[in-house]
Amino acid sequence: MTAHPMISLADIEAAQARLLPHIRKTPVMEIAAVREPLALRARTVMKLELFQVTGSFKARGAMNRLLADPHGTPKAGLVTASGGNHGLAVARTAHAAKTAATIFVPSSVSMEKVERMRGWNADVRIVGDEWLVSNEAALGFAQQSGATYFHPFADPLVVAGQGTLGLEIAGQIADLDAIVVAIGGGGLISGLSTAMKALNPAIKVIGVEPEGSPTLKASLDAGHVVRLAEVTSRVATMSCRQTDGRIFETVRTKVDDVLLVSDDDMLQASRWLWSEFAIAADLSGAASIAALRRWGPRFDSFGKVCALICGAGSEGVGR
Questions:
Q1: CATH classification of 58-149, choosing from 3.90.1170.50, 3.40.50.1100, 3.30.565.10, 3.40.50.620?
Q2: Tens of pLDDT along 38-65?
């Protein structure tokens, strides 16, 4: 029996129309004229989503969740748990809605992102050493306070918002054979793959996970959602012990491969982006480049590949 899809292309198109006044159309850039070229036969272009409002694609999903809420602006505020980027997006969304935001984060969070959340007037609380623990605290706070909980990936409205990135890329880059996408909980790759496969069923969607948090890879290998025994990656924005069943079903049917990279691979990729382009990507934002650098021969059959640079940060800057 085939599971009912979490979202459709129509959901994503509705989100795109809703979001138009609230987000930026981010640029694309071909990788060319670099000192240290990628060892790829394919032409490679980057989608620079790190220039989105708040520094990541997460602004799309959080704002769509607010705008499509049938109950209107939450009077008791917003609450979420985040490794950093979703928290920033929810903080900005709450600011736009003139309501309060409370963000629970794990101790592995980038303090730079914490300060940026506080810059949007969010109440940021560090609870636990991984997202799952922070999320339990966020759910408890929602129940106690009446604040509206914004899940970072297991919410169809959030996933549809992230899917608008797929529509945008399809309209910007012609003759694209493959796209490489970082995975945390899986909301981004679920929305993006739904949009891009609907428009071009032949395109290959390739996910990237940390070796220390292979949530979707482990689930795909097992044939069902698995809960990781431990999460050892220090990349908070990509660390998730267990995904959602609907996310898993979408990834199982629409994602062509999931590649693993180390935290150091991502750090080196972020340094490469800074050195070659003065692009300050966080480690999740550099994950697609890390995969191309580590798994280059896997892409030899493609003519044109897009590396999604999905988040901003300073990990690789000045080192």
A1: 3.40.50.1100
A2: 989 999 999 999 999 999 999 999 999 9
